[in-house]
Amino acid sequence: MNSANRSELVDALGHAAKWLAIAVAVALLAGTASAFFLFALQWATDVRSSHRWLIGLLPLAGLAVGWLYLHFGQKVEAGNNLLIDEIHDPQKIVPLRMAPLVLGGTVVSHLFGASVGREGTAVQMGGALADQLTHLLKLPAADRRIILMAGISAGFSSVFGTPLAGAVFGLEVLAIGRMRYDALLPCMLAAIVADQVGLLWGVQHVHYAIPAIPAVSACGLAGVAVAGAAFGLVGRLFAGFTHALAARLKRLIAYAPLRPLVGGAVVAAAVWLFTADRYIGLGIPTIVDAFRQPVAPYDFAAKFAFTVVSLGSGFKGGEVTPLFYIGATLGNALAPILHLPFPLLAGLGFVAVFAGAANAPIASTLMAIELFGAEVGIYAMLACVVSYLFSGHTGIYRSQRIGQSKHRAVPEGIKLGELSANDERQRNQAPDLSLSN
Hints:
The protein is an all-alpha fold. It has two domains: about 10-200, Clc chloride channel (Orthogonal Bundle), CATH 1.10.3080; about 220-390, Clc chloride channel (Orthogonal Bundle), CATH 1.10.3080. About 70% of the residues lie in helices and about 0% in strands. It has helices spanning about 5-50, 60-70, 80-90, 100-110, 120-135, 140-160, 165-170, 185-200, 220-250, 260-275, 285-290, 300-315, 320-340, 340-360, 360-370, 375-390, 415-430, and strands at about 175, 400. The chain has a two-stranded parallel sheet with strand order 1-2. The model has no long low-confidence stretch (mean pLDDT about 95).
């Protein structure tokens, strides 16, 4: 072995040892925080289920969460988008207060009946806790980007029990059509160890099962492709409606804490009027039912509406588990139309609506394989990729960048949240040819 090869080997070993140590530290923090969060979430769900009257206090809970963020959390209110921005353009350490604020806000949201998820909380806690190591270890900006990505992977992995999907999600969520492979090892290590840390704490994840995967056929692939397009369009609508409602409420209601108060009043009233308890919280029992038996064909639309109002008005949590619910029940409803088994389409919808809404088709495909088995891989990849295509240049994370456009020319590096304004400027600058003749 010559000196050049020896030097490269030493560098590789040093790099691996460095990131192994850092990734394990990130995983211990994120996995422990996620375990505590999941236990708290289960407690909140159980208490709400046994004391239904708590739903009537949802507006006041929203007011309290809004007040806390107004006075103590304005610097971290952007949540996942703040983490994405800091990875692309590192400025300053994410305040540690992000972790307790989002944890408390999410538990309160679930305790009183908002329709929100949990991934946003785990990802934000993972990112915020990981970033504290940046200051402690005096890491440079390039390493800080990687440690934040590892924190995202660890949080996602530990809250869902899907380390492969978590590792890739931390790489894929930053930019459409582009991933950073320099962070692959840290994200993978953090995701694997964080999942194991959660299991050691006693976390038990829900198991979803597709009893039988049909053999790959032309008719089956065609049906899955059609379903994938529907999943992508629903993911696109979900992101669009949630952002539009949030923007409209900001224009109409200047005082931030009043927005979740109004949204909470709408959700609570709808629950009481229509006995719609199945559409609040995580909705895990309904997701499980979608794999076992036909469910109401309007379940996906109802969960869609409850979640848009909850998140759009300012309740904390996340979008992903509600997207799982929407996707699983939509797939269940589409199954008889497309002549496919409803457990299969429920599973594909579970991952593919998320793939379109988050622009994460690879992580979503890996999640399907981890949850349902390798046999679903071909169908899952097709559904997730088609969903990703049909969701367009939209998404639940407005700070996500355009790395490579899907099907039309868009400026590279622009944020999704800035794309509509850019399109409007281009239309205004375009020459008017209507009078040229």
